[in-house]
Amino acid sequence: SSAKTLATCIFCKIVKGEIPSFKLIETETTYSFLDINPLAKGHSLVISKYHAEKLHELPDESLTDILRIAKQIAVATGAENYNILQNNGRIAHQEVDHVHFHVIPKPSTSDTEG
Ligand code: 5GP
Ligand code: ZN
């Protein structure tokens, strides 16, 4: 379900278009966009439209949807090396309390040499 949103959540606002974002792929259940403070060129975020703070609060079906899109984005970046990162809880470095997967390309020397 995509029904649950939180009025005060910045990622829910991004899904609703109330905060602008550079959208990559939108599906019925997911939304993905470029990270505003990228650790590398192409650093992207994939979220479920359904609002949940942490991974274990998401329905199983949502996990499949998110990971499928994370894979598509990873392929689209063309990066041979990349990290998929997902933080839960402040101590674990989660800053935005809406579940999100980072897709972070890891440039190699040959990538940067173009
Ligand atoms: P966390 O530390 O919670 O795993 O990561 C949150 C990520 O969201 C950070 O990489 C941060 O740059 C990104 N972020 C925070 N606010 C915004 C925003 O308003 N727009 C976009 N595109 N990214 C954001
Ligand atoms: Zn939210």
Automatic annotation (TrEMBL):
Q: Which GO BP terms sit in this record? A: nucleotide metabolic process
Q: Which residues form the HIT domain?
A: 10-114
Position of sequence motif Histidine triad motif: 98-102
GO function terms (MF aspect): catalytic activity
Annotated catalytic residues: 100
Name of the protein this chain belongs to: HIT domain-containing protein
Query: Which domain of life does the protein's organism represent?
Result: Eukaryota
- So which residues are the signal peptide here? none
The scientific name of the source species is Postia placenta MAD-698-R-SB12
